[in-house]
Amino acid sequence: MVAAVAVSSSASKVAAVVMLLLLSSGCQAQLSSTFYASTCPNALSTIRTSIRSAIARERRMAASLIRLHFHDCFVQGCDASVLLDDSATVTSEKSVIQNANSARGFEVIDQAKSAVENICPGVVSCADILAVAARDASEYVGGPSWTVKLGRRDSTNGSPSLANRDLPRFTDSLESLISLFGTKGLSARDMVALSGSHTIGQAQCVTFRDRIYSNGSDIDAGFASTRRRNCPATPPNGNGNLAPLDLVTPNSFDNNYFKNLMQKKGLLQSDQVLFSGGSTDSIVSEYSRTPSTFSSDFASAMIKMGDIEPLTGSSGIIRRICSAVN
Ligand code: HEM
């Protein structure tokens, strides 16, 4: 009898834990790839057309859009907070150091949003448009594709203080990066895979100057000297001068980034720490040897990143214009 009571009480504890788990994961469970199937069946093709034409005009835009989705998701979840401008009720995240003069692609998201508003007003969120744009961008430049889960809603405010706290910096150590991504539910392996998006896009001299003039042993001397040509030693001279994050194939989404790291040719310090005798060296060398593993891990990590704390159900709003609340 006592045993039976013990069994039934532990069974009810298990049931309670399962209920709690279901409740706590409730938000994420609501995202679904068919979310707009009946309310806006042409949403995805409309976004895609808009994004593809923007990248056809400027190939770097693919990189900028992937980064924008990342900078959205890491700050109070994937809620399009990064897109908001300052207003009477909104404090924008655009001026924090990780975004200022650096985050770009806002007008491309605005164009995609207005194309979607033309066919289904007030239905598709800016946060979902960002997630779809990142996937379309990767695909367009030869990277992996994946099915985007949808149903995120938009925030009514930004948070510069959370942006400042939660967006990584190019001076971060490997331990800090692993721990920061960990707070978002992403593993060290996810972090390395996602950093692989530095296979495309550009960085400004101000972000890699210290590294190329360090004369340290963790940077290839020839690579440092090449990069110094367009990045003068004394700030603020040339602060905004650009260099490709992947020196070999800056316009294609491939696994060259990881090969560069193994040759000490990572542009940012936060790139090189991924291969510098630490715990992620083995992941970098695996991705450099096996592009298909990098591709599939990148796609899974992007899906995981897109799941970070979405607003769903009746939380948040569907903004009519991505840069402002309704
Ligand atoms: C691991 C920590 C990371 C750090 C410290 C970091 C830092 C940076 C910095 C400093 C730049 C150059 C910005 C500029 O000079 O204007 C950059 C560019 C970029 N980042 Fe990251 N990043 C990280 C992770 C990621 C992740 C997870 C993604 C995407 C999932 C990403 C995507 C990009 C892309 C695509 C660019 C090029 C953007 C463009 O050309 O417009 N980064 N990143």
TrEMBL record:
What does the record note about the cofactor? Binds 1 heme b (iron(II)-protoporphyrin IX) group per subunit. Binds 2 calcium ions per subunit.
| Binding annotation for Ca(2+) 1 | 72, 75, 77, 79, 81, 93
Q: Which InterPro entries match?
A: Haem_peroxidase (IPR002016), Haem_peroxidase_sf (IPR010255), Peroxidase_pln (IPR000823), Peroxidases_AS (IPR019794), Peroxidases_heam-ligand_BS (IPR019793), Secretory_peroxidase (IPR033905)
The entry's active site is: 71 (proton acceptor)
Q: Which GO BP terms sit in this record?
A: hydrogen peroxide catabolic process; response to oxidative stress
What is catalysed by this protein?
A: 2 a phenolic donor + H2O2 = 2 a phenolic radical donor + 2 H2O
Which terms in the GO cellular component ontology are assigned? extracellular region
Disulfide bond annotation, renumbered to this chain: 40-120, 73-78, 126-322, 205-231
Query: What Enzyme Commission number(s) apply to this enzyme?
Result: 1.11.1.7
Q: Which PANTHER family does the UniProt record give? A: PEROXIDASE 5, PEROXIDASE 72-RELATED
**Family per similarity comment:** Belongs to the peroxidase family. Ascorbate peroxidase subfamily.
For this entry, the protein name equals Peroxidase
Q: Which organism is it from?
A: Corchorus olitorius
